[in-house]
Amino acid sequence: PQFPSVEFLTSSWQPRQFPADVGAEVAFAGRSNAGKSSALNAITGRKDLARTSKTPGRTQLINFFALNEQQRLADLPGYGYAKVPEKMRDHWRQLMERYVETRASLGGVVIVMDSRHPLTEFDWQMLEWTGAQNLPVHLLLTKADKLGRGESMATLKKVRSTVGEGVTAQLFSAVSKAGVDEARKEVLKMLAT
Ligand code: GDP
């Protein structure tokens, strides 16, 4: 049990509400419906950890979870694929950019993407922000159970060559649990740096 304790800390919609910027934090990002909540649950071994982030009114907030006094996970608001009001999009954009730019304890970002639709515009935007901060990034190509083995391997290869060095990527499935151990190791590694 690599995560003996995971406790909801707080939800923030602006930087001054963030919990103390101490120790280490790993953030999970992803387009809405990519499978981020399922991935968070599988990696932490919890059934509905990320349900908090899905309660109405919290989907546009950053939800922080404490692993212990010095380590946290941050569930970043999913980027909507449906039309969201421009004002909300602007707020989302500002919040994400400020978070990635200013969070000193941020040890790395996991970007969750549907392996059938990897590297969306949102994903590239996140890669731009993390790249500017030289942050470690790990890509989870999830719902891999929906692809055949050949297809998923080809996707992984293509994604790896597209993002280039410095960004790691793996196949993942919250359903078959394929890649859960590998993902957990990456999160622990980013928390340790
Ligand atoms: P989020 O909006 O990014 O948090 O996405 P969710 O975790 O809520 O997942 C969105 C939908 O995809 C739900 O219907 C999940 O059951 C489904 N889903 C998530 N992960 C997987 C997976 O690994 N395999 C399959 N087949 N479905 C998944």
Automatic annotation (TrEMBL):
Q: Which domain of life does the protein's organism represent?
A: Bacteria
Domain named EngB-type G is located at: 22-193
Please list the cofactors this protein needs. Answer: Mg(2+)
List the InterPro entries hit by this protein, alphabetically: G_ENGB_dom, GTP-bd, GTP-bd_ribosome_bio_YsxC, P-loop_NTPase
Provide the function of this protein. Answer: Necessary for normal cell division and for the maintenance of normal septation.
> Which family, according to the similarity comment?
Belongs to the TRAFAC class TrmE-Era-EngA-EngB-Septin-like GTPase superfamily. EngB GTPase family.
Instruction: Tell me what this protein is called.
Output: Probable GTP-binding protein EngB
Q: Source species, please? A: Steroidobacter gossypii
